[in-house]
């Protein structure tokens, strides 16, 4: 099992065992066209064009929000992927700005103090293979509650086709993956729960925080230890899915097995190897 490394704003690092040995939102409303009657709206603090290639880090603070977003050089150097990530950046920034503006208005109308909202997304490389780039993002959000919430995102970039693929789409179905990997995940999860809680999970418990979690309910990562093929599967489980907020995030790493290879879709099977 892979240990967890807590990043700034409680973001989590990509499991080291998954990295080769060498990670949606509503579309932002379109801006109106400038005319003599319609002045052009002011640019946001970071409205300069994205760099061509390389890593990108955006940090923007206003009187209502703090926005941070980054991705690594491998992503910025991959044709098409940087544009996809930049599009996500703008969507997340616009969503945060809108929520923060509404939150400040509601706080003012109700006589409450307003605490600055925040959003941080940090993409990292899980595996960089000849035909694929697997990425994971740690995400942290604060919308004025008692504490920030955090979670994950993940994609695999098909370098040949120039498009993103959800990791679960590499398998014949979520149910097929759960049938093979689910029991191992549940066993590992309950063992870790016992360590953190100081007592075993009660057999037959109907408590939501004692239930097994299916692989596709967490953040599914495709990793590699050889830099040539996917031979590891990671599962990241955010707070409230497997336990209360205080228990933090659960994170697991499993080797590919012949049984798991059997539930990989035929068109993707050559990208995988068992260990």
Automatic annotation (TrEMBL):
Region named Disordered: 25-56
Annotated PROSITE patterns: PROKAR_LIPOPROTEIN
Keyword Signal set for record: yes
InterPro entries xrefs: PdaC
Domain Deacetylase PdaC: 60-150
Keyword Signal appears in the UniProt entry: yes
Keywords: Signal
Signal sequence residues: 1-19
Name of protein: DUF4163 domain-containing protein
């Amino acid at each position: 099992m892979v240990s967890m490394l807590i990043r700034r704003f409680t973001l989590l690092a990509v499991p080291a065992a998954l990295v080769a040995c060498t990670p949606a939102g509503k579309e932002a409303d379109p801006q109106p066209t400038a005319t003599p009657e319609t002045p052009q709206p002011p640019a946001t603090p970071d409205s300069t064009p994205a760099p061509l290639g390389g890593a990108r880090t955006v940090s923007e603070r206003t009187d209502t929000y703090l926005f941070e977003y980054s991705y690594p050089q491998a992503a910025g150097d991959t044709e098409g992927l940087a544009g996809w990530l930049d599009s996500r950046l703008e969507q997340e920034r616009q969503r945060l700005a809108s929520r923060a503006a509404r939150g400040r208005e509601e706080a003012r109308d109700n006589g409450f103090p307003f605490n600055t909202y925040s959003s941080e997304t940090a993409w990292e490389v899980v595996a960089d293979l000849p035909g694929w780039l697997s990425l994971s993002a740690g995400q942290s959000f604060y919308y004025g509650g008692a504490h920030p919430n955090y979670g994950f995102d993940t994609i695999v970039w098909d370098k040949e086709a120039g498009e993103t693929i959800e990791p679960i789409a590499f398998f014949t179905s979520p149910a097929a993956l759960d049938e093979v990997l689910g029991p191992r995940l549940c066993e590992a999860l309950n063992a870790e729960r016992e360590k953190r809680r100081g007592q075993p999970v009660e057999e037959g418990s109907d408590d939501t925080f004692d239930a097994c979690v299916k692989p596709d309910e967490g953040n599914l990562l495709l990793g590699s230890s050889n830099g040539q093929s996917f031979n590891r599967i990671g599962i990241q489980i955010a707070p409230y899915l497997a336990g209360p907020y205080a228990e933090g995030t659960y994170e697991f790493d499993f080797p590919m097995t012949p049984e798991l290879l059997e539930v990989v879709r035929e068109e993707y099977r050559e990208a995988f190897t068992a260990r």
